[in-house]
Amino acid sequence: MASAFDRIADLIAETSDVPREKITPDSHVIDDLGIDSLDFLDIVFAIDKEFGIKVPVEAWTQEVNAGRAPAENFFVMKNLAIRVEELVAAKQAPSV
Amino acid sequence: MRLEYFEMIDRITAVDDNTLTAECTVPAAEGNPVFTGHLPSFPLMPGVLLIETMAQASGWLLLHRLNFTRMPLLASVKEAKLRSFVLPEASLEVHATLVHDGSGYAVTTGRITSAGKKVCEVELTLRALPFPTPELAAMVRGRARALGMAVAEPA
Q: Is the pLDDT of residue A62 over 70?
């Protein structure tokens, strides 16, 4: 199975006009890849479907806007992949 | 329908967490400014207004899901297919179905039939934002009641 990073990068390339080779682990989705908020909605929808999760974009945005977390935590590709892996793991964890 | 006021839905006949069905009747052509221009001597319901009708049905579905706490606004239109002409005074049945409930957005499909025949369909993305004004929130709740939806007063 491809890594979360590769799967997300493939989704971005399929969903937007960004060439796959331009997407690196250090790419900032907005600043480097030029993804606007509407394209990002499409990408989030694709990630939600691909991984069977609900990416909490609103909560992330609130954390950034409130200064509780830097935007890089969520919007740099390698970190986005980690966040997605965390969401997948949380979904698979047995509930108590 | 009151096209010039963008009141596209006449009555909501069924709604649950995932689907909504509504009815509407296209107004007569005579004296209607939309049909004066679209089209002269051949009045035809504009396709963009059919898409708006499906978007409004999806919006009412999301308002129901959100218990009228946020305002759904159209963000994208995909795979729109306009299969047949819609003439003045046509009766339409409008269907909205939830495809995906995301964080701050939702994806739906819309579909319109008339006399059992497919008229059009579309995939829509709507953002769910805080109501920009309390007046709009109150107006939307009032309009929902007029359309036949059950609406609880805000806490």
A: yes
For B86-116, give the DSSP string: --TT-EEEEEEEEEEE-SSEEEEEEEEEETT
Contact A11, A55 (CB under 8 A): no
CATH architecture of the domain with range B3-140: Roll (3.10)
pLDDT in tens, B85-128: 999 999 999 999 999 999 999 999 999 999 999 999 999 999 99
> Which CATH number characterizes residue A27's domain?
1.10.1200.10
Which listed residue (B38, B64, B95, B100) is catalytic?
Answer: B38
Percent of chain B with pLDDT over 90: 95
Residue A69: which domain range? 4-92
Report CB contact under 8 Å: A54, B127.
no
Q: Is B95 a catalytic residue?
A: no
